[in-house]
Amino acid sequence: MKALIKAEIFKLLRQSKTWYALAALLMIEGVILFSAYFQGKNILDILLDNLKKSFYFEGTLLNGNLLVYLILNTLWFHLPLILMIIVSGSLTAEYKDRTLQTIMLQPVSKWKFILSKYIVAIGFTLAVVGMLALTSFTLSYGLFGKGDLIVYLNTLNFFPSGDAFVRLQYAFVSGALSMVFFSVASLTLAVIFREATKTWIVSSLFLILSNLLLKVDFGDTIFNRVFFAKLNDTWQNFFYFNINWTLVYTNSLLLCGYSLLFMAIGILLFHKKDIG
Amino acid sequence: MRWRLLLWGLLYLPASRAQGIDPDLLKIKNRMDSIVQFSASLKLNVDVSFINMPAKYARMSYTKGKPLKFSSEDFVMIPKRGLDFSLNSLMEFPFITVPRGEEIRNGKTYKAINIIPTDKRADFSIAMLLLDIKNNRVAETEINTKKDGTYNLLLQYENSSKVLPSLVEVNFEIEKIRIPLNFMGKDTDIDRKKMRTGGSKSGKIFLQISNYLIKYL
């Protein structure tokens, strides 16, 4: 199993598309940061407009913490898209190049092979989120400094700089669980569709539908609370003034459960399906 | 001749007295004007239903004839009214005072007066002050501004000898905004008019002032 994982990591790092994807992500991050700076000005203007009547402000809210928060808002759509392409590509490429048949001619267990792909996909996803967290904080703090974070979620919430930093870190961890879910789902879709283009289209559709359904309010129903699309917004809970930890833990566990379910389905299908 | 004098007295004397400036107010103003400079530590607590903000800390410094200065490592919201202890903003332009009798607050009796500006440049239309004439200081102020609604200030002092307050409660009106959830995300156009449907809310800010360093004339 270890050898399989090592081989998968080697393949992932050897393929040029992985590095193109990472470069693309860093580029996207840079563009988001740039646009977030201007978006931030507008947002602060709107948020503080009515307060200006009664208050003078001392200090600035257009700082690194606000920019990381704005990056997070945009990142969770672009990042899974690229992750899904890379992760699903790790299997579809093997189907296309017929290397899968060569591997299966070796004394390699099918379920172990696909499990190693899932493990590497999860590890890669976490590493990418970690890299983006590190670069987001470094760039934002480096260019715009630290300061209080203002967030509007039904109420105007102000967080001191230290508290904001902790909350943003939690948000990255929570967002990483969503990213893992999308990566796992895309690999399962690759098991089902085998062909790269079809898998990418279906994966993109899956992501877009998830994002659309996230905004649909299904009322106060259990479905609204446990449906996987609804769980991808869990990271926002860290920006309510009082964090609902029960909800965060429940959503995170559910998301892990969905990821395991998709993984189990993928392993089962891969095991049953004929490689040829 | 006597009738004429009586008529003049009845007609003009109350008006001329009303249009003067209350002597107790002038006494308090003079006492405040004896402060050339002061600095103090400030703790601000905001109590507005749609704002969650932890306590904020700042330093404030005042030099006579100059606006108050604030410095803080945090982002702080300083109320536009409530920290003008010198009463300069109320007396910047010509005004008259009108006595309004006495008012009782927490068992204490205060002298109530109205300040009415006679100059259009004043940014308030009328102000009501409760004067603690025994201790020569202001206990409460209600300012009706022309643009920013009404401010009500309650001032508390550490003891009877203090000239500057240790606790100021500022009550004000504020417009609630409604912004769509996740508006900070992509592709969101914000209609400011639509957002302002929350109506007007009242807010409070508590200012705890300590470590005064006062320099007198």
Number of strands of chain B: 12
Query: Quick one: which chains have the greatest interface?
Result: A-B, 40 and 39 residues
Structural class of chain A: mainly alpha
Write the element-wise H/E pattern of chain B from the N-terminal end onward. HHEEEEEHEEEEEEHE
CATH homology superfamily name of chain B: Lipoprotein localisation LolA/LolB/LppX
Which fold name is given in CATH as the topology of chain B? outer membrane lipoprotein receptor (LolB), chain A
What ranges of chain B have pLDDT less than 50 throughout 5 or more consecutive residues? 5-18, 180-191
Largest sheet of chain B: 10 strands, antiparallel
Structure commentary:
The complex is a heterodimer of chains A (276) and B (217). Chain A has helices at residues 2-14, 16-48, 64-96, 99-104, 110-144, 161-193, 196-214, 222-226, 228-231, 245-272, and strands spanning 55-58, 149-153, 155-159. Helix content of chain A is 76%, strand content 5%. In chain A, helix 1 packs across helix 5 (110-144), helix 3 (64-96) packs parallel to helix 6 (161-193) and helix 6 crosses helix 7 (196-214). With 276 residues, chain A is mainly alpha-helical. A two-stranded antiparallel sheet of chain A has the order 2-3. The longest helix of chain A is centred in the middle third of the chain and has 35 residues, at 110-144. Chain B is an alpha+beta fold. Helices cover 17% and strands 47% of the residues of chain B. Chain B has helices at residues 2-18, 23-33, 88-91, 192-195; strands at residues 35-47, 51-52, 56-63, 69-71, 76-79, 95-105, 108-117, 124-132, 137-145, 150-156, 167-175, 200-216. Chain B has a ten-stranded antiparallel sheet. The longest helix of chain B is centred in the first third of the chain and has 17 residues, at 2-18. The radius of gyration of chain B is 21 Å and the shape is globular. At the A-B interface, helix 2, strand 1, helix 3, strand 2 and strand 3 of A face strand 2, strand 5 and strand 11 of B.
